[in-house]
């Protein structure tokens, strides 16, 4: 049975969520070859910086800076040892977008499964949104994902997922970048603002119930 013909785990209709819970529609997207490069506006003053074995404090601070408006929370909950093992793995590459010495964007590529390489995290500080910076960062991501390497075999599939808690522009941006949607899911989770790692004022566009 193909994924598209799997029975839905939820019956049609509206399903109430308990207080303190969130639900999001997750969209999965993929590509199998480097799409044709897109033109990108000049980004004066920006540089992409590789961070090998970044410290947890630095990583979590940048992760919060980029993701708090969209309720990114998975890496905030993750145990130190588990997160450190990911960030120090030679097949995980972490980059920041730096401007005037300040890290304002996050790119994380996960090559641990060469058959299913993941664009694990991709985001910019709100001050960098607009002006083509997202396109600039995505072109770097695609170059690095599909670049020949003496350390690993060529990747076969590059995938990413986003959800309705993220920017409303995310799915369209990924499609324009060459990804094709292939699946959808419903994710139910604890609201990270309820006794969690994010403040109650985070993501005001999503009501706290």
Chain-wise SSE layout:
Layout: E1 21-31, E2 46-51, H1 56-67, H2 74-77, H3 80-87, E3 92-99, E4 102-110, E5 117-124, H4 133-146, E6 158-163, H5 170-176, E7 180-190
Number of strands: 7
What is the approximate shape? globular
Please work out how many helical segments DSSP would assign.
5
Structural class call reads alpha+beta
The parts where pLDDT drops under 50 for at least 5 residues are: none
Strand percentage lies at: 25-35%
**Sheet of most strands:** 7 strands, mixed
N- to C-terminal distance = 38 Å
Helix coverage percent: 10-25%
* Widest beta sheet: strand line-up: 2-3-4-5-6-1-7
What does this structure look like?
By secondary structure, the protein is α+β, with helices and mostly antiparallel strands. It is 22% helix and 28% strand. The protein contains five helices and seven strands. The chain has helices at 56-67, 74-77, 80-87, 133-146, 170-176; strands at residues 21-31, 46-51, 92-99, 102-110, 117-124, 158-163, 180-190. The radius of gyration is 18 Å and the shape is globular.
For this entry, give a set of tags.
209 residues, alpha+beta, seven-stranded mixed sheet, 5 helices, globular
Concise description?
The protein is an alpha+beta fold and 209 residues long.
